[in-house]
Design brief:
By secondary structure, the chain is of the alpha/beta class. It has 4 domains: 47 residues; 121 residues, no CATH class; 154 residues, Leucine-rich repeat, LRR (right-handed beta-alpha superhelix) (Alpha-Beta Horseshoe), CATH 3.80.10; 140 residues, Alpha-Beta Horseshoe (Leucine-rich repeat, LRR (right-handed beta-alpha superhelix)), CATH 3.80.10. The strands form 2 sheets. The chain has a 14-stranded parallel sheet. β15, α18 and β16 form a beta-alpha-beta unit. It is globular, with a radius of gyration of 27 Å. About 1% of the residues have low confidence. This is F-box domain-containing protein. InterPro entries: LRR_dom_sf.
Length: 501
């Protein structure tokens, strides 16, 4: 058996590894020599710094050691700045502090601040030197949680100085930082950057200060004019006085821009004037290949919200100079949840000739609403290769509809609540009429009755996010793998805890 394992080509093991979750793959050092190499690559390809302790110090040594060459394996670095906690003093030291404190009431605080400052300096120096030595690094992410305390020193160091040291390597940059830190980007040049992702949370900053920050930030973004291919902007609560209108007005034309994504709270308060976004998109009408307009949870506004603001996605779509000749990917949040879907249907129909990637989120669609979308696309629905939907229920009629109307679909992602057997009949409530166990049995029986339809479906990957617990997801995934022969990958889309190195 060992001889068979040794003779198996490396490419075979590499293909096997693609079906193993990364957090598991990183632990498989001892399977064989091939897997040792694969596991090491998986462990160091993406490195996350979220604290600095003995383990992090050891990691830095491994990554910096030229004899090991681990740093050369790293393609993506994520930093989630940590909080440095003052040390707990021993009894003798505490007594000394007490004596000093009698004569100087600020002694303890001053000593603690000095220790923290020195520790921050050491942490910054070690992490910065480690990352600077990663010669194959191409992606960098800096993360901020607005509800947690943080050291401004870490963000300043990991934004300005660090970016300056790795500026000639970065192709992809993701920043989610305290808003005032965005000003540090203005003098930085990233000559190879193609993908920029920015998360914005301004909390209680006044509008005047936000506008000043954007004035600096837009200098950095506009300097990416020769290389930028993908721009993603997201805002979130709390951002009381945030308005992205001015930002879109100041942005230049990026001749290579192919992907654009915007996510704001669904009430539209972060975009007071959708025409500014429309004008920006129309400037890139001939280059855009993928457009995403999505939403997040609602914000708290300073003043009453314009009731029309929540229709910002609809208003943007109906105002664009359509069609966009190269658009082949579309990701739309169907908001408000009970709004008329006609504008989204019309925009999708206008681009159906080239559309091969469609994502519809937020609103749980009925079987008939999914059918309406496919009917509007008409014969071009067969061109779709990637489809992501949120639906009310998973039922045989829906799968039959997708298999028959989209035979070339290679990736399908579905989010749904329940599994029901017969939700496609007119007048049916769509809710399970039997116990969960019986409903699933009927569901399987109806699917198996049309098994021939799925035999020719080339669907290779299916992702499932089932919001109910019963029946077990494993039972559903096993059944789907049996009836759809082409399936090579089945993914559980349920949110997973963060995994870090």
């Amino acid at each position: 058996m060992d001889e068979v394992l040794e003779r198996t080509p490396h490419d075979v093991w590499l293909n096997i590894s693609r079906f193993i979750p990364r957090n598991v793959l990183r632990t498989l050092y001892g399977v064989n020599r091939n897997f040792l190499e694969i596991a090491v690559n998986a462990r160091y390809e993406v490195v996350t710094f979220f604290k600095f302790d003995k383990d992090t110090e050891s990691l830095c040594r491994n990554l910096s050691d030229p004899n090991l060459g681990r740093g050369a394996l790293t393609r993506h670095v994520k930093i989630k700045p940590w909080v440095v906690q003052p040390p707990s003093h021993k009894r003798g030291r505490s007594l000394w502090n007490f004596i000093c404190g009698v004569f100087d009431p600020h002694y303890t605080q001053r000593t603690t601040n000095k220790w923290v400052k020195k520790r921050l300096h050491n942490d910054i120096e070690r992490v910065t030197d480690t990352i600077s030595g990663m010669r194959n690094l191409s992606e960098y992410s800096l993360v901020w949680k607005e509800d947690r305390p943080y050291h401004t020193e870490l963000y300043r160091a990991f934004l300005g100085p660090l970016l300056t040291r790795i500026h000639d390597r970065l192709v992809r940059l993701s920043l989610n930082v305290p808003p005032e830190m965005l000003c540090l980007l203005a003098p930085i040049s990233l000559p190879r950057l193609e993908h920029l992702e920015i998360g914005i949370c301004t909390r209680m900053l006044p509008k005047k200060e936000i506008d000043q920050i954007f004035g600096c930030f837009v200098v950095f973004v506009n300097n990416l004019l020769p290389t930028l291919k993908s721009l993603s902007i997201s805002s979130r609560v709390p951002s009381q006085s945030l308005d992205l209108t001015g930002l879109f007005t100041m942005l230049t034309v990026f001749p290579r821009l192919q992907r654009f994504s915007l996510s704001i709270p669904f009430d539209g308060t972060h975009l007071s004037s959708p025409p500014s976004l429309v004008a920006f998109l129309n400037k890139h009408r001939r280059t855009l290949r993928h457009l995403q307009l999505s939403s997040s949870r609602c914000s708290a506004a300073e003043s009453p919200v314009d009731p029309e603001a929540k229709y910002w996605i609809r208003n943007v779509l109906t105002s664009l100079e359509t069609p966009y000749p190269r658009l082949h990917g579309l990701n739309l949040a169907l908001r408000p949840l009970k709004a008329d879907l006609t504008p989204m249907l019309n925009f999708t129909t206008q681009h159906s000739r080239k559309l091969d990637d469609l994502t519809l989120t937020e609103r749980a669609l009925s079987y008939f609403e999914v059918k309406d979308f496919l009917d509007n696309i008409g014969v071009y629905s067969s061109r779709l290769k990637h489809l992501r939907l949120k639906v009310q229920h998973l039922n045989p009629a829906l799968l039959e509809l997708l298999a028959s109307r989209i035979p070339r679909l290679s990736l399908l992602e579905l989010t749904f609540g329940d599994i029901v057997a017969t939700a496609a009949h007119p007048g049916h409530s769509g809710y399970p009429a039997h116990t969960t166990r019986d409903e699933f049995a009927l569901f399987k029986a109806e699917i198996q009755a049309n098994r021939q339809l799925y035999a020719s479906w080339i669907l290779g990957t299916i992702g499932i996010h089932k919001e109910s617990r019963s029946p077990p997801l494993s039972d559903l995934l096993q059944f789907l793998s049996e009836v759809i022969p082409a399936l090579q990958s089945i993914v559980d889309l349920a949110p997973k805890p963060d995994t870090r190195v």
